[in-house]
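Board notes (copied after class):
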Amino acid sequence: MKILQKMITKISVIIPTYNCAEFLENAIRSALNQTYKNTEIIVINDCSTDNTDEIVEKFNRKLVYIKQKVNKGAAAARNEGIEAAKGEFIALLDADDEWLSHRLEIMMMSLAERKADFVTSNAYIKINNIITSQKIYPNYDIRFDLDVKQQYLKALGKNFIFSMCMMKKDILLDVGLFDSQLRYHEDWDMWLRLLKKGYRSGLVNELSAIYTVREGSSTNTSNLRKAEDHMKILNKHRDFISNKAYNIVSGSVNSHKFRETINNNKILSAYFLFKTLMNYDYLSEVVFPEISKKLIRNSKCKR
């Protein structure tokens, strides 16, 4: 199918933003400068206190602008944009990231040719406003070649799907949009629910985006919330995890030692411990070496 033929299909670009005015203009321009032209850009201002309004005003009628009256978090902001979207496809872009001009074109081609229901791509990593040679996927990730049941099990242990995904709006509605109760890991939660429902993920290994790493100190509260939200997601998939594995991970988060470590500002070591415990390879090799085979046989993933 030629790309001009596929431009009949509208893509809605969803850009949630909260106090990201210094990055937002580049994000919007990168979405507007796509070779694939049948798009609508939807910016959702999650009650920012910076000059976001001034940035958006520069683009006047070139986009749809939604302003939240209260700060609800990225998940709720994305949902507002998705519900307002007129496009058949949804493309997710964070306010501090950027796209190369051919991104939507190759993503649309991938969805048509690779038999995946939602796709992501490789991206350069920008640190301190410098685009580095580092990539999100240094090498092609073979997990994207697995069947959907195995992808689900891999993603349950560790999120391997880069957040800048594109998919049909229908599949997001089918699983109930993003969980607005989560302040962290809401993208991981969405990928898990899509995979569990039988929607397969795919990777376009071509570099077509720029992912920004922003420096800044995390607070004790935010790091504890990350761990708690991690557990909320794990609880949604409780039936796919052995009791032994679940107790190890939940025990680490709820333990006095874990919380004391965070309260004593030893945040990185505590959160790293938790992430290590959640690593699929650790769980499969150390905690329950036979459980993955059982889960594949009894998987509830279905179309």
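Comment from the instructor: Residues 220-298 form one domain. The beta strands are 11-17, 39-45, 64-67, 89-92, 98-99, 118-127, 130-135, 166-168, 201-213.
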